[in-house]
Structures
1.
Amino acid sequence: MISPETHIPSVTLNDSSHLPAIGFGAMIYDAQTARTAVADAIDTGYRLIDTAEAYHNEEAVGRAIADSRVPRGQITLTTKVWPSPAMGYDEARAHVLASLGRLGVERIDLVLLHEPYGDTAAQWRALEDLRDEGKIRSIGVSNYDASQLHQLLQTARVRPVVDQIESHPWFNQNALVDECLRLGIVPQAWSALAEGRNGIFTNPVLAHIAAAHTKSVAQVVLRWDVQRGLVPLAKSTHAARMRENADIFDFTLSNEEIDRIDGLDMGRSLYPGY
Ligand SMILES: NC(=O)c1ccc[n+]([C@@H]2O[C@H](COP(=O)([O-])OP(=O)(O)OC[C@H]3O[C@@H](n4cnc5c(N)ncnc54)[C@H](OP(=O)(O)O)[C@@H]3O)[C@@H](O)[C@H]2O)c1
């Protein structure tokens, strides 16, 4: 029996809307796999679905949401505009309108500028105007560092609600996380499980903490995000792991455990180019 209910709490954004405290990452390039995974994620209780025009799966993601038994208003759908170095106002606007069509929705809940490239001030104005027109509920950015956030805020009429950044035990970006929180911008963690890289699921420090809480390493890492003030995005193509990853709201890591996980930081991105 599939339940349309969820146990996932939410956080409040600076525009007063609510965002589920963990999201399902839909960076899955095969459309049929994406559609099945998003359907499973919603059945499992996820109410935040994160896609992007660059994932080339917006139609499949939109179809999975439309077919679900959960009312559209209970699902926060995120997509992202992929900017070119030449992208300004008109192109950013056209990209969002195209995403609306592919997703098959009247309004996108959260649209992010995927990367800080091109005329970001003009791209941001396009998102602000689309928000005014009711085509987007909330607007944010991704992969902006602190100086890029400050630069955007100099011309922004609307403050970004989130900055979606790489954050996992090997590259926690705690300074940027703290700056986001200071600015009232919710940091979201992408590749929260580091895509399984560097042996994350068998790391002895993480495994020791996991055993102490009778939880898995994935749950410890995602809980660490929540306690640092991030909204993690995790992906799996297996329903049991989706359920496991969302089951992180019934235990608390100690400050000492958080410090030990912070201590795994290697100070550089796992993804050259970011
Ligand atoms: N804004 C950006 O620039 C940006 C960049 C990258 C990613 N993102 C977003 O962040 C999301 C998450 O990042 P990601 O997709 O790179 O990967 P991820 O969530 O860090 O890791 C996914 C990998 O971990 C495995 N996994 C998941 N849960 C597991 C568990 N409980 N136990 C063992 N293995 C587990 C999955 O395998 P199985 O499928 O086999 O379970 C998959 O191989 C993306 O989907 C996307 O929405 C955004």
2.
Amino acid sequence: MIIETIFSTLDASGRPNFAPMGVLWGEEEVIVRPFRSTHTCRNLLATGYGVANVTDDVLAFVQSALDDVVLPHFPAISVPGVVFQGACYWRELAVVAAAETAERAEVRCRVVGRGWQRDFLGFCRARSAVIEATILATRLHLHDRETVLEELRRYGKIVRKTGNDAERVAFERVAEFVRRWLSDRGG
Ligand SMILES: Cc1cc2nc3c(=O)[nH]c(=O)nc-3n(C[C@H](O)[C@H](O)[C@H](O)COP(=O)(O)O)c2cc1C
């Protein structure tokens, strides 16, 4: 099953990078499929280590996807890497094999460490809607303007109906990013 994580890596100078990544989740092995254009792909292949953070903090998904922020973190235990401070739980990963296509890498990682801070509460429609809107915002070039606006309206309705302030703030950041992207392209 693909689980949406905030994936952390270090670059060659040791600077942490955070990005949402859907990973194929297993207890012993995790498979990451980053596009080759991402920092995550470059860092993971160069260092051989990463951390898959599971969190319900949707603003962190938005910020790490759309703004180049270094999220609050602390050192991982079993790999050279960092854990997102807002992680409910996480897996520390060592790369065992990588295959690359023109677009993506498929990176098989062994779970070499793990940690837990708090329970993941459960399903929440507003949080799922923010995650979907963030995915949309990272793939705007693949859709036409009408589709983007329609999807954004649909997710916005769910967030307004079922979310709290945290989800509304996170969604507004995505909506602002999308509006700016469309207006830069003459929309
Ligand atoms: C929930 C979610 C899942 C994502 N999964 C992937 C993924 O599996 N592979 C990928 O390359 N990008 C994925 N993305 C897009 C990246 O997070 C986005 O391109 C990000 O800016 C890459 O950051 P980086 O260059 O710092 O690694 C996902 C985005 C979201 C919101």
3.
Amino acid sequence: MDLDLDTGRLIVFLTGFGFFLALESLLPARQMTSAKHRRLLTHGFMATVNTLLVRTLTFVPMLAWLVYVEQQGWGLARWLGLSGWLEFIISIIVLDAFDYFWHRANHRITFLWRFHKAHHADTQIDVSTALRFHPGELLLSSLAKATWVVIWGPSTIAWFLFEILVSWFAQAHHANWDLPDRLERVVRRVWVTPRFHAIHHLVDRRFGDANFSTLLSVWDPCFGTEAEALSRAQTKDLDLGLPEAREHTASLKQWLTEPIARRNLGLSQQRQAD
Ligand SMILES: [Zn+2]
């Protein structure tokens, strides 16, 4: 069953990627300034390195950990006696909340920000940005996820479906498309929309250090990190990325060396100081 879920994850990933790539090519929300094929090549290469690394180092240990935690009967979900659909739905919501706090930590703790800023150094946002992560961030987040597993104790199926949803939503909210204003206002109350997430990537961190949610958008208003909503007209021309990353968005060397680079450090603290 685990292997089927894993194949399912790959199919959802590939069809989602194709779908959002087509959508943003037909109905782009913002004008792209760099060549699409170059972005796809660079980010595709990063994703290949990351997938090889993460699969080799963390996939089997994570599966073994899920099974071990289940055998031991650990985790709040099991102590609460949750099972079936209820366990499934509540686990997705709880894991999404964990992700929200982990994402905030990635912006607040300088050590984590060193890795996460490789994602934010992208000066354009499109579906391929969802592939742009530093391998160090992915390895660190595997450790965080292993901790959520022992605290909450989700079923293996809830865990896999959550991972599938995260990869689908990451493509959906990084892709360069937008909803009409009225529809956007309704959808963003519950789910993270592309416009909601684009604000998170603004160069001006006084606005950009907000909107950390992944699936459900409710965590930001709940914990006071929601940015003021923008209209569709306002999102046509946004300054995205990081102040000192304007020129080097497609450099593989810069992507890998971002954690040891001094530029763009401490930005996560800027908002608190303002
Ligand atoms: Zn971020």
